[in-house]
Amino acid sequence: TWIVPQANMRRPNILLTGTPGVGKTTLGKEIAARTDFTYINVGDLAKEGELYEGFDEEYGCPILDEDRVVDELEEKMSDGGVIVDYHSCDFFPERWFNIVFVLRTENSVLYNRLESRGYKGKKLQDNLQCEIFQIIYEEAMSSYKEDIVHQLPSNIPEDMENNLDQIIQWIEQWMKDNN
Ligand code: ADP
Ligand code: MG
Question: Which ipTM value was assigned to this complex?
């Protein structure tokens, strides 16, 4: 299904969240390829704009300046038609999103993905624990209205296809209902 852009149509904003490695970026880019929606990877945005407020010595990675990220995105979000991809979700304004998808991956599958991404030691273990204890799902459920938060399994390629189809259908329905 392709969603044909029409002038002045209202479009929803979509948040894709979940533990690193669950498939947010792959899915987000696929949605963007099949719609006229804009895909935004918050990690990349932060890197490009150096939107950091320090350095985490333990993890060896910069700390996101959440306020500057929000300022940077505010204007784009007001137009709708944006897909946001990030592994955390409690600092975005609740009003930005019409729907929130939390991708979920089984432990052994996620282990392999993160290992082949080069994660090891504490970083690997902490990310696996994050998924096991469904930290991001609970973060989403406490940051947004529970009825707009949906979990999607993301273990095998067929899951990816199903999720893509489901989200495209949801977008089409939303646009019918809101235009
Ligand atoms: P994230 O952006 O959440 O960190 P990515 O989209 O980068 O995750 O995906 C991590 C890796 O897992 C990629 O190699 C991707 O191809 C693979 N992957 C993601 N989702 C699935 C899936 N449902 N089935 C098989 N492989 C997947
Ligand atoms: Mg990613």
Answer: 0.99
